Amino acid sequence: MSIQSFDIVMWAKDGAWVLPTTLRRLEQVLPNKLVHRKIMVDDRSTDETREIAKSFGWEVYTNPESGISSGANFALSMVDCPYFMSVEQDLLLSKNWWNQVSPLLNDDKIGTASGVRFSSKPQAVHDLEKFVYRKYLVDKNIASYLSNRKLSSLTLGKTLDNTMYKTDIVRAAGGFPYMASGNCGIDTILVFQLLKHGYEWKVNPLCQSVHLRRGFQQILNHQKWYAVASQEITIKLEQLGFSTNKLRYGPKHSLNRLLMSPFVGVFISAKMRNPLICIVHPLIKLYNFMGYVS
Fold this sequence. Notes:
By secondary structure, this protein is an alpha/beta fold. It has a single domain (about 5-294), classed as Spore Coat Polysaccharide Biosynthesis Protein SpsA, Chain A (Alpha-Beta Complex), CATH 3.90.550. It has 11 helices and 8 strands. The chain has helices spanning about 20-30, 50-55, 65-80, 95-100, 125-140, 150-155, 165-170, 185-195, 215-240, 250-270, 275-294, and strands spanning about 5-10, 35-40, 60, 85, 90, 110-120, 160-165, 200-210. An 8-stranded mixed β-sheet has the order 3-2-1-4-7-6-8-5, sandwiched between helices. Helix 1 (about 20-30) links the parallel strand 1 (about 5-10) and strand 2 (about 35-40). Helix 9 packs across helix 11 (about 275-294) and helix 10 (about 250-270) packs antiparallel against helix 11. The longest helix has 24 residues, at about 215-240. It starts with 5 loop residues before the first strand and ends with a helix.
């Protein structure tokens, strides 16, 4: 089985600072002769996002509500190919992405496939993220003591920003989950929606794209958002019929990770040979805990 054509969808908001770079990379990496439609759902940007997208040949529509949940489902409603791809405005696609990800969909059990991505800056966050992926997806010897490897690797790397889908399977699974926050936890719930319908989301950890970041504060803010969204994630998983007893969500677990973070930071710093991880790791755990408190 080979992909004869596919649509690309993107949800965007005030992405002018990065879109020329990411859209140009898409044109370099993807087989343009197979691209059927390029569909952008704009969340009422106040910059030149819409104009930039149109200059690259994208169809641009306005998000009927707000947030990724609405934008993703509105984009999905316009897809008319058996396959489609979602990419976010700040994702610089790996130059080998197409050859490393699209073949994964040849397996009938796979409904969705993606690569991984690492933050562009700061370098300490980039190295920390690489350690996590090595720990759970690549090198089983790096932390052999982990008892939750299988559970953690189930959702690790499964993001909406560099992903290929079988259209009918995603629609049959209920489309993209609607989250109250509009942005957080959509990919996590989609993993379990697919599982409930008998399909898997496959990740190739060797296909590594770049998540373009403005700075460290943006990453810290995301940690708070993830914590805030965790309660809704737990509720939705239970509604889908999955046990959440082993999920490490909640303020108690977050506090434990915060208290352990200085020691874990030293361990990871030694493994990755980057002393700044000693500072970065505890700060990330602090903001995650602040999210639960809020």
